[in-house]
Each structure stands twice: as C-alpha cells, then as structure tokens.
Amino acid sequence: MYSKFDPGAMTDNTSSNIMFIEDEVFVATESCFLRKVDPRNLDTGEKVDLMKLVGVNMATSHPLTDKDGTTYNLGGSFISGPKYHIIQVPPCKDTNCNGSDPWTASKVIGTIPSSWKTCFSYHHSFGMTENYLIFLEQPMLINTVKIATSQVKGKSLHDCLDWCPEEKVKFHIINKTTGQLLKTKYISEEAFFLFHHSNAYEVDGQIVVDVVAYDSPEIFDKLYLNKVRMNEYSNRHPPQLRRFVIPIVEGKTVRAGEELVHVPGCEASAIRVKDNRLGDHIRLQCQNIGKPGFEMPSHNPKYTGKHYRYVYGTGGYEQGYFCHSASKTDVETGESWLWKGNEYQYPGEPVFVARPDSTDEDDGVLLVTVVDIRKDHKDMMLVLDAKDLSEIARAEVDVPIPNGLHGLFRLEE
Ligand SMILES: [Fe+2]
Questions:
Q1: Of 204, 245, 263, 349, which residue is the least packed, with the fewest Cβ within 10 Å?
Q2: Do the strands 364-372 and 380-385 form a parallel or antiparallel pair, or are they unpaired?
Q3: What is the distance, to the nearest Å, from the Cα of residue 344 to the centroid of all Cα atoms in its chain?
C-alpha cells in the first residue's frame, strides 16, 4: 500500500484477508478487488471487481457474513463526492446463483455521505450485530484532492492520508434490513485510529462495540521496512482493546447530561451534549479492556454479533506485556492468558477452531502461525488449547510464513 498509488489501477494483490463467502474461499485487500482461490491447491481464481458491481473504489478487507448467509461489506466511493456504500451480498439460496460467483448479486442497500467535502475516512473493517452494522468514521482521512494528483507527483496512498484528531470518531449505525442510517449522532470524546473491530452485540437497546484502537496512526510509520529491519519499533501508542456502548434512542427524548449506558459492570459512558463545533450529539467515552499491546483480534466465529467473552490476539511487533505472544483476553474481567515465544518468534493471528459438538465458547483449539527470524530455524503452526493457551502441538514447515496476515480454517472432508 505504500507503493505509488494509482486510483485508476487499484492493486489486485489481495493479500490482506482470506474468507468464506458461501462455500467459496476469497482473498481481499482494501481495494475494489477480491480474488477467488481454490483451497485445495491455492490456484488463483476469478477476480471480483466491486467497482463494476457496486461502484466502490475501495472496500474493507473484512466482509462479514450473517447467520442467514447474507454477507455485508462497506466501501468508499469518490467518483461523485466522497461517500460510503453499504454492500449486501444475498445468500445463494435467495438468488439461485447455483455455484456461480455470489458477488454478482451484490447490491448497495444504503449510502452514507462523507462528513467531509473532499475526504473520506480510511476504513479496514466494521462491526455487525443482529440488527445493525457499525461503521466508525475515523479521523484518518483519505484526501481525494491528493489522490487526484498522486500519479503526477508519484505519491503513495500513505501520502494521501491526513490525520485530523479534532474531528474525533463518528459512529454510524446502519439498520441491516433497510440500509437506513440512524439519525442520532454519536461521536467519541477522544480521537483514535483503528484497523480492527473485535466484535459487537446488542444488549437491552444498546450496542456494545469492541475495537482495537490506537491513540494515533503512528503504526503506519512504525511498519516501514527500514525501521522493522533495524528493529526500531517504537513503544508509543500501542493498540488497546476499547469498549464503547451505543444507546439506541431513536424517537426517544434524551436529556442532556444523563448517563445512557446501562450495561452491568461496564464503565463506558454515553451522554448527550451540545457542542459548538460538533453539534448536538451523544458523546461516547470508552472503557479500556485488559492490557495494551495486542492486535488481530479474533473470536469463536459462532459468537460474531453476539454476546461473547473471549478475544484472541497477537502481540505482533509490540514490546510490552504481549511481546512475542499469542493471547486470550476475557472481555468481562480483562484477565489474559499467553503463549509466549522467545525473542526471535513472532506469532500471527490466532484462528479459533471449535471442538466438534462443543458448548463452551472457548472449547476448542487456536491455530497460530509463528515466524522465527533466525536463518536456521523453521517457521511453524502452533495448536494451542483455547482454554488456557497451553501448547498441544506444533508443525514446522520448510517455507517462510508471511507475518501479519489473517488466517482461515477449512475442514476438508
Ligand atoms: Fe485486517
């Protein structure tokens, strides 16, 4: 993404995420392209072009599939003013796609105008509950004027991003069935940057939204190859799991100053305020969960959009508590469990695989790739007990494993 950026020739190197849509496997990145992959031999399949299908220039790397098989994604369009389209892909059973590409039935069910005339928010993922999609319009802005001249000036996408913390984070709540945006304005008290939603769910007319947040987008600068190669990884602004609670108050009278969060044990806050610059809105204050320093949040996929207890993650290159670790955190208590490697080992995203017929949320194993940077040591995949992160097995491989990408488990009959 740091290479020279050409909006007319967006990359189809879909190397960021891998996912199921129906029974097909697709890989994605933040451009308008996805790519089908044959999971048996990893052969590259057909390319999906979301620009042609639904008119988006960029889309998140993390489409989400509902329990009824409907898939959602969110994409930015800057063709006629910056905006975000809510994309819905109906399940094949509803469209009779009969094994053809399910994306061909994609449609836009709602559009959110950008809060800025010439910019839109960088977006890598979004949240989903039973009834709503949650889009965080963060103050990391993609400047379309800079994009328009990026080719001439030889600029990368990174050069087209503006960090505007005074804009805070605007939480947009979209009805999944109608595509309608809730009218209430929700804005965070503090600005933050995020890549990943952990999970979201509804409880008593409120939406709990867990994200991995950074105080600033400095992570982009930390990941320049020359810095990583020199082992110069700054400890500033580590990722932190943060919980926000959105009260659904459409049609209700809300008094200014009244606490609107009523989730037992939760310290997050939502209060209606009238701000001269940001207007009348509900101001959201988060609760930090557990210690800072892990990313790539994952959970038991049966619990997507539902009340959940455990989030798994990796310390990545972070230097703090989660350094060289794969982790599990209890989102109710903040308690953590670790698998800790040595100073040369870097675990990737844990992928949860449930034990057949399991009932406990954490009854299963975690599959975790581990990169070993020593020349004479092999990379491997760990199998960890998801209850306590004790090691059950490891499989060393003869090829280097790319670090920092998302994973997927598929059971072959
Ligand atoms: Fe991601």
A1: 204
A2: antiparallel
A3: 27
Q: Work out the average pLDDT over 332-354.
A: 96
Please tell me the distance between residue 396's alpha carbon and the centre of ligand 1 in angstroms.
Answer: 25
**Model confidence at 97, in pLDDT bands (50, 70, 90)?**
confident
Distance 18 CA to ligand 1 centre (A): 10
Closest CA to 57 of 36, 78, 72, 88: 78
- What residue numbers bound the domain in which 86 lies? 7-289
6 pLDDT exceeds 80?
A: no
Residue 314 falls inside a structural domain: no
Q: What is the pLDDT of residues 292-336, one digit of tens each?
A: 999 999 999 999 999 999 999 999 888 899 999 999 999 999 999
Q: Ligand 1 center to residue 412 CA distance, Å?
A: 25
Kindly give, in sequence order, each residue whose CB lies less than 8 Å from that of residue 358, ignoring residues fewer than 6 positions away. Answer: 364
In this structure, are residues 290 and 312 in contact, taking their beta carbons and an 8 Å threshold? Answer: no
- The single residue listed with the structure tokens 């328009």 is 148
CA of 197 to the centre of ligand 1 (A): 9
Give residue 99's pLDDT. 61
For residue 245, how far is its CA from the centre of ligand 1 (angstroms)?
A: 23
Q: What is the pTM of this model?
A: 0.94
* Centroid of ligand 1 to alpha carbon of 349 (angstroms): 10
pLDDT classification of 7: cutoffs 50, 70, 90:
low
Place of tokens 């890598």: 124
Q: How far apart are CA 61 and CA 122, in angstroms?
A: 12
**Distance from residue 25's CA to the centre of ligand 1 (Å):** 16
- Residue 17 inside a domain? The answer is yes
Q: Is residue 241, in this structure, part of any structural domain at all? A: yes
* Residues 6 or more apart in contact with residue 129 via CB below 8 angstroms: 200, 201, 202, 207, 305
Distance from the alpha carbon of residue 264 to the mean position of ligand 1, in angstroms:
30
Cross-strand bridge partners of residue 263? none
Is residue 244 situated within a structural domain?
Answer: yes
Is residue 274 classed exposed, middle or buried when 0-12, 13-18 and 19+ CB atoms within 10 A define those classes? exposed
Instruction: Say yes or no to pLDDT of 61 above 50.
Output: yes
- Distance (Å) from CA 257 to ligand 1 centroid: 36
The sign one gets for the Cα dihedral 253, 256, 259, 260 is positive
What's the structural domain count of the chain? 1
Q: What is the Å distance from ligand 1's center to 16 Cα?
A: 6
Ligand 1 centroid to residue 296 C-alpha, Å: 7
